[in-house]
Amino acid sequence: MNLRVLGCHGGELPGCRSTCFLVDGTLALDAGALTATLDLPSLASVDQIVLTHSHFDHVKDLPLLSDLVVGWRKTPITIWASHACIQTLRDNMFNGSLWPDFTRLPSVDSPVFQLRSFSPGDTFQAGAYTVRSVLVSHPVESCGFVIERAGTALGISGDTGPTQKLWELLNQTPNLKALLLETSFPDELQDLADISGHLTPRTLRGELGKFRRNGADVLLYHLKPAFVAELKRQVAGLPVKVLELGQSFEL
Ligand SMILES: [Zn+2]
Ligand SMILES: [Zn+2]
């Protein structure tokens, strides 16, 4: 399983891109950095997009992507998201007002996007990948996932504060090779992190204590761009790696 880091920050600035990971060139986890990162043939090769939740930094490239790949694909791109997230996309994004409804364009029979919803806790098949979902702790419905193919599993936390079920799921996954784990704000902003459902290095430590990692790498993402340097200082010494844009991993 190849993992490419297209975006690993909780926002954008020069040198920082919003959350987006590409698995084997065909499955995207979140859509915060597709169109500014991939060329058109690579964008057209993305068959499945699995969304953690509806917040803007995770879905922002969907409208631009839909517009770009019209005429470049014969089949729809499948977007997987929880029921609440899909409803938010229908109501607020592909509503014919903010953006055309590319779930019905260029034709109802052959649209650019097909939306597939699930309940947090469900397992579903996204192309060649088995995806297990779990509800995490965030102000909107947000999911973590374990993505598995051919005996290799990758975890992603989604945006979350301290949580429980995610760790139970990960601890039950013996072939987990890596976990993408959010950490957003420095310890000084603990109150903001708590109210907005995010981790700081302090709460990250507590979360790592729930994880029987079994050799899996813990890869940090969703660092808020304004605090990257401070966060790197605060996690130094913890058994984690801070992701950098453009990195690629063979799992
Ligand atoms: Zn976010
Ligand atoms: Zn969020």
CATH C-level category: Alpha Beta
Helix-strand sequence:
EEEHEHHEHEEEEEHEHHEHEE
What's the structural domain tally?
1
How many strand elements?
Answer: 14
Distance between the termini: 5 Å
Q: What topology, given as strand order, has the largest sheet?
A: 6-5-4-3-2-1-14
> How would you describe the shape?
globular
Number of helices: 8
- CATH superfamily (homologous) name: Ribonuclease Z/Hydroxyacylglutathione hydrolase-like
Please bin the fraction of helical residues.
10-25%
Task: Quote the average pLDDT.
Answer: 97
Q: What share of residues are in beta strands?
A: 25-35%
Structure notes:
With 251 residues, this protein is α/β, with parallel strands linked by helices. The protein has a single domain, classed as 4-Layer Sandwich (Metallo-beta-lactamase, Chain A). Helix content is 23%, strand content 27%. It contains eight helices and 14 strands. The chain has a seven-stranded mixed sheet with strand order 6-5-4-3-2-1-14. A seven-stranded mixed sheet has the order 7-8-9-10-11-12-13. The radius of gyration is 17 Å and the shape is globular. The chain starts with a strand and ends with a strand. The model has no long low-confidence stretch (mean pLDDT 97). The structure holds zinc ion (2 copies).
